[in-house]
Amino acid sequence: MSASLVQVRELHKDRAALEREYATKLQALAKKAVEKKAKKIVALVLGNEPTKAWDENAIARSTLDKAYTQLISAITDASNDHVNLADALDSKVVEPLRAAEKKHEDAKKKEIQYYQKLLADRDRVYADRLKSKQKYDEECQEVEAYRQKQERSADDRHAERAARQYEQQQVDMLNSKNMYLISIAVANKVKEKFYSEDLPSLENELQTRLLTRFVEIVKDAQELQIKHLDTLRSHLIATEAALDSVSPQADQDLFIDYNIAPFAPPPDWAFEPSAVHYDHGFSALIDATIGDEGAQNPHMFKSSSFSIPTTCAYCKLPADCSGSKHGGRTHTPSGSLSDISRTSSVISRTESLGIVAPSASSGEATPTPSSFARASHISEEKGPTARVLFDFTPTSPFELAVTADSFVHVLEEDDGSGWVKVADESGAKGLVPASYVELVEATPAPNSSTSSLSSGTHQTTGEYVRGLYSYKASGPDEIDVEVGKLIRLTDGPTGGRNYADGWWEGVDENGKTGIFPSNYVERV
Fold first, then answer.
1. Residue range 370-381: average pLDDT?
2. What is the CATH number that goes with domain 381-447?
3. How many Cβ atoms sit within 10 Å of the Cβ of residue 240?
4. Which of 4, 162, 298, 302 counts the most CB atoms within 10 A of its CB?
5. How far is the CA of 119 from the CAs of 109, 124, 188, 193, 198, in angstroms?
6. pLDDT tens digits, residue range 80-113?
7. pLDDT level of residue 333 (50, 70, 90 thresholds)
8. How far apart are CA 305 and CA 239, in angstroms?
9. CATH among 2.30.30.40, 3.30.1330.10, 1.10.1240.10, 3.40.50.300 for 460-523
């Protein structure tokens, strides 16, 4: 049993050493994690380049940071708990086992001494029995000697005395015999007590005390480990609660709050001319169109995904057309937007801007940017009235939403594409399927009249604009814009800011009336 005690003590001693070693590794791991966290947490929570100042309170608002901090804290606390367990094993298990071992050895020495005493007492009783036996044997020899002497002196005058001596010797022999019998009984009692009571009680008491103390100490060790596991479990529960509290939405809002920055969408793509074909007509149209808006407000062309079929295979711009390759209708030049046929996606783009394209004939001069403006002052007679038969929902910017039983004015009849251009009561224009409308009155002859800019006196509104950029007039209907100079806007539904999209009408300091790009000036 003593050897087992030593083995258990050494076992817990080694266990305590392992706990300390494990605690040291956990502490090193937690320290390394803290250092890495300090380097990475800002980028993780607020991004690599936060747009506004931050402090530790901002980091502390992150639920992810709280969970990570709790995780590292749990590892640190666990390392301390392992150190505490190692100390407890040393103080409450290893040392008590060593003390129990020493106490057992002391008790064992005392038990040996007590055993020696019991053995000596037993041997003394055994010796008394042997002495009684020896005395009894001697008395028996004396009795026998006196008996033989009496027999020899039967006829002798000493026979009576020999008889008396014989009888006396028999009495002494019987006394010795009684003493011997008593010593035998005493020795048997001592022997029985020694082997039945003294030795078993001595051995049992020694083992019982040792085993009882051993169990108590080992149970204390188990209790320490149970408490240690409960403490570790509390750390795990706290970490689990912190992880459950992580809110991705809150952390995302925090990240957005510290990363708000000015944003501009990517620039639009510009037309790139072909490297193998010089598309003179289209490039001239695009150049002229872009020139009227300036760099601050680039054009937004309609998508070319919607293209109205046409039978004309020659025309690329609305101009005089001598005929169709396939016998289609010819184009009639006009300043009216309604006379421009939808020949291709290119023309659709110009139509989306309200550009009145110039004639492509060689005799025409190069158009000025103002000639492409959507002239809101151009009066256009309403076409024939038509009734809408079915609801129509537009699927592209070219089309117009109409409802059944409403009335519209036909601006351009079906040219074979299956579409007509109409205007509703609010003045909105667009394409609808030709089969969705029916005429309710005869179509009057279109009579478009374009009101040109007058060089005479215009009524002004008293509203002024100041030039932001220099602009040189490129047509007789335009006026120059100089940086810092004032221009007084004209009045009326077709003047001033109502003239056209991207073009305003006004009177310069010299009294000249004309139009100019609206994005080259600012209102005063």
1. 49
2. 2.30.30.40
3. 13
4. 162
5. 15, 9, 14, 11, 10
6. 999 999 999 999 899 988 888 888 788 888 888 8
7. very low
8. 57
9. 2.30.30.40
- 385-388, strands of its sheet edge to edge: 429-433, 419-423, 407-412, 385-388, 437-439
Q: Round to whole Å and give the CA distance between 222 and 11.
A: 13
| DSSP, residue by residue, 332-395 | ---SSGGG----SHHHHHHHHTT--PPP-STTSPPPPGGGGS-BTT-B-----EEEE-S-B--S
For 30-61, what is each residue's pLDDT tens digit?
999 999 988 888 888 888 888 888 888 888 88
For tokens 């749990």, the residue is 74
Q: To the nearest 10°, the Cα dihedral for 391, 396, 400, 405?
A: -10
**Rounded distance between C-alpha atoms, residue 312 and residue 318, angstroms:** 11
Instruction: Report the phi/psi class of residue 294: left, alpha or beta, with left for phi > 0 and alpha for psi in -120 to 50.
Output: left
**Phi/psi of residue 505, each to 5°?**
-115, 135
In the chain, list all ranges with CATH 2.30.30.40.
381-447, 460-523
Within the chain, all domains assigned CATH 1.20.1270.60 are found at: 2-255
Amino acid (one-letter) located at 165: Q
Q: Measured between alpha carbons, how far is 356 from 373 in angstroms, rounded to an integer?
A: 7
Residue 513 structure tokens? 């009336």
How many C-beta neighbours within 10 Å does residue 152 have?
12
Q: What CATH architecture does domain 2-255 belong to?
A: Up-down Bundle (1.20)
At residue 155, the 3 state secondary structure works out as coil
Q: Cα separation of 407 and 423, whole Å?
A: 9
Rounded distance, CA 240 to CA 481, Å?
71
Check: CB of residue 467 under 8 Å from CB of residue 474.
Answer: no
Residue 267 near residue 91, CB atoms below 8 Å: no
- In the structure encoding, which two tokens stand for residue 102, read together? 């020493």
In whole angstroms, what is the distance from residue 397 CA to residue 371 CA?
23
CA distance 515 to 524: 18
> Mean pLDDT lowest for which of 39-48, 290-299, 402-411, 458-467?
290-299
